[in-house]
Amino acid sequence: MDFRDKDGEPLIKWNTPEEAFDAWRECTRGQLCDYTGMSYEKLSGGSGIHWPCNEQYPHGREHLYSDYVFRTFYDTAENFGHDLDTGAAVTPKTFKALNPAGRALLKGADYVVPHEIVDEDYPLHLTTGRVVFQFHTRTKTAHSRELNEAAPDAFIQLNGEDAERLGIEERDMLQIESRRGWAYAPARIGDIEPGHVFMPFHYGYWDNDERPRAVNEMTLYEWDPVSKQPYFKYAAVRLRKMQPGEPFEMDDPMRDEHLKEASENPRAHVADYLGLLDDSSRATAQALFAVAEKHKAEPDIGAICKMLARFSQEHSEDLQPCIQRYGETQEKEADKLLEVLQPSHHKGPLSLLRDLHDCWLLAQESHISIVVLKQATQALRDDEMMELLQRMSEHNSRQLAWLKTRIKQTAPQSLIVPS
């Protein structure tokens, strides 16, 4: 492919499998999975080598953490962890305050009801999994005659009691359906708990033109909040015995409509969030200038609100080169929010507190747009825009921090002291 590095030299400087391994080995130097003590010859010399394998452990380290020192030091931790229920990242500040310093972190989580449970319409628990003769979507095992003869097709496994109740016999063709999709496969009876059905995920709509049989079409459109692993393992389903000669329903209208919509409206959406950020920056500036004028007799309000307003004013101006590159979609959402909030409209003893509260909401609108655009900008590799967003993020953080501090200072006087 003739990939080149920044100096114009070949990006990939190796040609053989051994040279490729040596390049990868160097990438691991100093990491937990340090391979630098391995060699290409050692790879075929036994039943495997444990990492780290380096100068300290030339033959590999059999067990990690046998000294009870874990990689939880603030400076060396690979990440700071997550809330197990929501997936929200633990902040560096929180992790540093916890100061595990090499100790293990054991986290607990309360039981959470499955996102989908059985009911009258979908009375059976579906679980998915593997069979011993196939692997994943069979991109390799499908080429083996022996494996295909051993496991040629999907099946729907159900308990004998459920089969008797539904009038199903071994090898009857069944339709299995969830709230999201359906599939067809022959029945296999026994070796499963009542109320449950099992279907292997190796087979799909892409490898059989005769009938849909992809069980993952029926599972949940969700994922685990921390690992981001899809919830491919369960769903609430119902079964129906097919009649002889009954045709299979092949099309999924929801999926087809989604694909059609995507093909008819192919466009990038950076412009949408550039428009949101531009709008929210101008609205935040307008609100802060209004508060500065309205409460200019209050200590520090006038001067600081004007300074923070100028931050947002500059943001709108600095965004223009990016808008010229990627476009801008103006939906005036921030203007609608400003119209509802209008800090200058509040009267009475709560006036300052409510005005600061409204400014915080508008500044938070800018914060979210900056967060979203930074993720997209990383993918675009637009260094100029990333530098701008980083500067805007710093200004926005200062706005939010001051507003929150001033709100906390204002709250007791406004809420408790009679007026």
Give the CATH superfamily of the largest domain. Answer: Ferritin, core subunit, four-helix bundle
Total domains, how many?
4
Contiguous uncertain segments of 5+ residues: none
Order of helices and strands: HHEHEHEEEEHHHHHHH
Radius of gyration: 30 Å
Number of strands: 6
Total of DSSP H or I helical runs spanning 4+ residues: 11
CATH architecture level-2 label of the largest domain: Up-down Bundle
Distance between the termini: 76 Å
How confident overall, as mean pLDDT? Answer: 90
Descriptive report:
- It contains 11 helices and 6 strands.
- The protein is extended, with a radius of gyration of 30 Å.
- The N and C termini lie far apart (76 Å).
- The protein has a 6-stranded mixed beta barrel with strand order 1-5-2-4-3-6.
- It has helices spanning 17-27, 92-98, 145-150, 160-166, 253-264, 270-294, 301-318, 320-326, 333-341, 351-380, 383-415, and strands at residues 124-129, 156-158, 173-177, 182-189, 196-200, 234-241.
- Helix 6 packs parallel to helix 9 (333-341).
- By secondary structure, it is α/β, with parallel strands linked by helices.
- It folds into 4 domains: 1-64, no CATH class; 72-105, no CATH class; 124-251, Barwin-like endoglucanases; 270-415, Ferritin (Up-down Bundle), CATH 1.20.1260.
- Helices cover 39% and strands 8% of the residues.
Q: What would the keywords be for this entry?
A:
419 residues, single chain, 6-stranded mixed barrel, Barwin-like endoglucanases, alpha/beta, 6 strands
